[in-house]
Amino acid sequence: MGRSPSAYAPHGIRHSGAYVGENEMSVFGVPEAEEEIYRHFLRNPGTRADDLDLLLHSRPRDAHGRIARLQELGLLRAEDAEGRIFPADPEVALTRLVDVRLHALHQELQRVTRSRHVIDGLRAEQGARTPPPQGIEQLEGLAQIRNRIDDLAFFARDEILSVEPYTRLSAENIARSRPLDLRCLRRGVRIRNVVSSVALQDPPTAAYLRELAENGAAIRVTADTTERLLVYDRRAALVPLDPRDTSRGALLAHRTGLVSNIISLFERIWDQAEELSRADDGTEIGGDTAVARPSGIERRVLVSMCTVGKDEAGARELGVSVRTYRRHVADLMQTLGAASRAQAALLARERGWI
């Protein structure tokens, strides 16, 4: 007797229509019962926790335990002298939870990407029948080569080097490569790629290369190479048996000496190649030298340097790792010849980059 009709509404349902039983805050690690408590205090700030167990259909001790956890999460403030409870501002509270959640996900992602030892352990279970790769492996057929490339890219931690003299990429190639390439860049893996200048004549291929460059990849263009190679973390190198016909198979080298020689070949090709921005008619002429304009992501980093105080916030705003963000900052400062971030921002404004 004496209760309003809403008190008898089914658990999680409110007549206002704002909350209909969906645990929207579960993505932040907030269970449904605790979310309902938080919503209760948003609607009734400064009230006491009396009879809250009736709202939750639970024991009083459980209700107080959930309040304590919400206070730990920063969603509720501590009770005042009169036992009243006030909720934290949703935007402030959820921003903090987003940071905590992203940090946890980042750590989880690092654990996943560093799980190569699991594969080694599983290989050990096979015993002598299929020993881990030593020296050189021969891969046969495009399917096996593609699957191995996917594995190598997935577990790459630091750097991927490639020379790929294709004249165009099919829509299927782009659709297959884009998720892996962008994932590597988001994780802070440095990508250096040399492609044929002819590829820029194909609009979809050129657009894909520009997209990679805008997301942090370093891409150069050459007109006179037939080499085709891939190097992952300077530990494994993949080369085709026949550069003119990749379907014939490939060799995957693990020996340090062989990989080092392939890296040396890559560096020679890289040094002789031209920046994508210049080959793509994206240069600025200043005096006697041509200065490449910043890529899309570099412009965003410059803007972030002027508006955001911490690297973590800038990286989160751009959707990249802190390591990748700091690498962009260092590269921009070197390009601009700046001794500090403030000077880099001023020089970028003078050039009309921001």
What topology emerges from the helices and strands here?
Elements: H1 32-43, H2 52-56, H3 60-73, H4 90-113, H5 116-125, E1 136-139, H6 141-155, E2 159-164, H7 171-186, E3 190-196, H8 203-214, E4 218-222, E5 229-232, E6 236-240, E7 250-253, H9 256-272, E8 274-275, H10 276-279, E9 283-286, E10 289-292, H11 296-307, H12 311-318, H13 322-336, H14 341-350
Parallel strand pairs: 2-3, 3-4
Antiparallel strand pairs: 1-7, 2-5, 4-8, 5-6, 6-7, 9-10
Helix pairs in contact: 1-3, 7-8, 11-12, 11-13, 11-14, 12-13, 13-14
Q: Supply the CATH architecture of the largest domain.
A: 2-Layer Sandwich
Mean pLDDT, rounded to whole units? 77
Structural class: alpha+beta
Q: Quickly count the domains.
A: 3
> Whole-Å distance between the termini?
66 Å
Please bin the fraction of helical residues: 40-55%
Anisotropy-based shape: elongated
Report the CATH topology name of the largest domain: Endonuclease, Chain A
CATH homology-level superfamily of the largest domain: Endonuclease Chain A
Largest sheet: number of strands, sense, barrel closure = 8 strands, mixed
Record field, number of beta strands: 10
Order of helices and strands: HHHHHEHEHEHEEEEHEHEEHHHH
GO molecular function: DNA binding
Domain HTH luxR-type: 291-348
GO biological process, one term: regulation of DNA-templated transcription
Protein name: LuxR-family transcriptional regulator
